[in-house]
Here is the input.
Amino acid sequence: MKNKSLFDSFNNAMLGVIRAIRTERNLRIHLISSLIVLVLALFFNFSTTELLILIFTLALVICMELVNTSIECVVDLVCGKSRHPLAKKAKDVAAGAVFIATLCAVLVGYVLFYTKIAKNSINLFEKIRQMPYYITLISILIVLVLTVGIKAFTGYTRFLRGGMPSGHSSISFAIATAICFVDKGRSILVISLVYFLAFLVAQSRVEGKIHSILQVIAGASLGTLVTILIFQLFS
Here is the structure.
């Protein structure tokens, strides 16, 4: 079925990822491992290039796992309960692609992390205090994952529109809270403006009848509290 709009394309793509996560154990393992690695990356003073290499490598593993799942579904659809040597070959080759991507990710992670551990003997928590922008990025990603995860857990399938909690509200308040921590001057004007903008985002979701007031409040609370927790842990 052809998607009616670009919005539907994005929503269906996210729905495909969520369905794969729900049904594929290996994908869940890779996803959790990737999140753990990203959190650990906060403790190391990676350069922008190193961080991009790490993110790209982790994304490659997830993408290969999604492709593997797609191939398995197509093979099962075509073959049904019957067995065919070519079907087995297709599944084995797809699994091999995932294996190679995973092996590559392990090697990249080893090189990046071992190099940093070998060169730096200072307290890693002291390092992370000097990287508020990395903490901001990870905080927003965690809020996004939690928002989509809660929607998926409650059975909601339109991740970019509606549902509990409001994604726009959670992200906007997460960004506003992060700005408050990053702003060393703690300017009352800056804090007031960023939260006012976050409030406008939340208010627009209610006015547009996309979310209820409760959903918006839940999103704002999630974004604010998670971001505060992350910054408090590493500050």
User: Anything to note?
Assistant: The mean pLDDT is 80. The chain is about 80% helix and 0% strand. The chain has two domains: 1-122, 131-235. The CA atoms of residues 68 and 94 lie 5 Å apart.
